[in-house]
Amino acid sequence: MTLRSRILELEAASQPLEPGAAERDRLMAQAHGYVQRLLADLQERPAYNDDKSAALELRDLPFEPGSRPMEHLIERIHESVVEPGLLPSHAGHLGYIPGGGIYASSLADYLAAVTNEYAGVRFTGPGSVEMEDLILDWMARLVGFPETADGNLASGGSIASLIAIVAAREAAGLRARDYDRTVVYASPHIHQCLHKALRVAGMGEAVLRDVAVDENRRLRPESLAGLIAEDQARGLRPWLVLASAGTTDTGAIDPLSPIADIAAAQGLWLHVDAAYGGFFALLDEFRPALAGMERADSIVLDPHKGMFLPYGTGAVLVRNRDALRDAHAHYASYLQDAVEDEGGGRSPAAVSPELTKHFRALRVWLPLLLHGEEPFRACLREKLELAKYFRREVQALGFEVGPEPQLTVVTYRWVPASGSANAFNQALVEETHRDGRVFFSSTTIDGKFVLRMAALAFRTHLDTIDLALEVLREAVARLEAEPGHRNPMARTAGVQT
Ligand SMILES: *Cc1c(COP(=O)(O)O)cnc(C)c1O
């Protein structure tokens, strides 16, 4: 066999990777047909399915040299991936900080994947990089950053936070020998991804000061100022303040203006974690609550939360563009054609650990232009009102409620007539998981086990909240009727016998 005929034979064998127009239609019809069936009765499905055994059935489909029919694969995806556990696209996702999954973004992902646009370097992907720049400019204006700001669309809030922490480290000129006398200030309620980011940035040895919080779990500026003064007197090096514009636990927004005053006066880098709360800046009436955010040195926002996007996009903004670039730019000879071209501006690869990256900008850009900003505003506003409504109504059912929510998280618990309230509420959240029509998560506040209701999924509407209240009412009634249910340990023992 000649070399040419061997090559042509291999070309033919690889042909399934390039389905023709008719085959593309057929595959698309199957995928789209499934999406239509799923979305048609999404809300009749459970939001949460406690039985996760079907996930393991993925193993029944080993990777083999031969092909398999698309319809079987879609069925497997449905049974093993969509059904078990949480269905995050469901209106009844009221746990953690819910994500979204707006349809326009899924189409953008499809277009991004088919064109496979290269979003890491401007030289080869001028349009995709320009689009990312436009989105970052839009977000920078939203948070009140100056023209000198820069940023990056990363995979989520965690990697966006890491990018910010590394920029802060380099901007301070910190070296490894300084780390164990370098001090970070944060309330105990910052997101765990910031602890991770510090460690990944090599700064696990830095001193972390727990700043005191007020009765609504917001950082106390006086405590911050006092701790910084003490550390300065000790000869330590105060470096970074981590503030939250919406904690994950309760949606508490730290008092950003006084914090910014202190950080500026002492020359500390101020990072604001606005992964949850940042997009509420789209609402004029909400901007006062976020005042001071515009004075941060870096900010993280999560479009896969507050813009209702499917998972996979977190944004970092850094006030001083040089700080971001100095921390991340690197040169390699195989990219010599791609170094910053005349006047085009930096590439995303110069401001992030990523080189090749998903064309994330399109999944933000397409829905923003297709729908306009207004539906996003309405959806955020609706969630704020739903949180107030839920708090009022759950209190009317007899629950003890936490403070008026600043964002869209409400904490609440049932105080039983007798027995341990913590054990009862743990049994209660587990009971709602077995019910599954909506999904709640829980947390512990000052030693009290409380349930959380977080309204941020775009499909969560008034009927969802009414259903959530019904689920809670029924679950409490079941637990109250069966005293054995009150103690989760006793129940587990009962199952075993
Ligand atoms: C979700 C969240 C993060 C982490 O972002 P990921 O996108 O999950 O990586 C950080 N901070 C807050 C306040 C969050 O809600």
Number of helices: 16
Bound molecules: pyridoxal-5'-phosphate
The counted number of beta strands is: 13
Strand order of the largest sheet: 3-9-8-7-6-4-5
Fraction in helix: 40-55%
The value of Rg in angstroms is: 25 Å
Spatial gap, N to C terminus: 70 Å
Pattern of helices and strands: HHEHEHHEHEHEHEHEEHEHHHEEHEEHH
Please, what is the oligomeric state?
single chain
Question: Which outline best applies?
Answer: globular
Question: Which spans of ≥5 residues are poorly predicted at pLDDT below 50?
Answer: 490-497
**Arithmetic mean of pLDDT:** 95
Strand content: 5-15%
Q: In this structure, how is the largest beta sheet organized?
A: 7 strands, mixed
Describe this structure in words.
The chain has 497 residues and is an alpha/beta fold. Helix content is 43%, strand content 12%. The protein contains 16 helices and 13 strands. It has helices spanning 3-13, 21-40, 70-82, 103-115, 126-143, 157-171, 192-200, 221-233, 256-266, 303-306, 321-328, 361-371, 374-396, 421-435, 462-481, 488-496; strands at residues 48-49, 85-86, 150-154, 182-186, 207-210, 237-244, 269-274, 298-301, 314-318, 400-401, 409-413, 441-445, 448-454. The strands form 3 sheets. The chain has a 7-stranded mixed β-sheet with strand order 3-9-8-7-6-4-5, with helices on both faces. Helix 6 (157-171) packs across helix 7 and helix 6 packs across helix 11 (321-328). The protein is globular. The structure holds pyridoxal-5'-phosphate. The site of pyridoxal-5'-phosphate (PLP) has 14 residues, from helix 6.
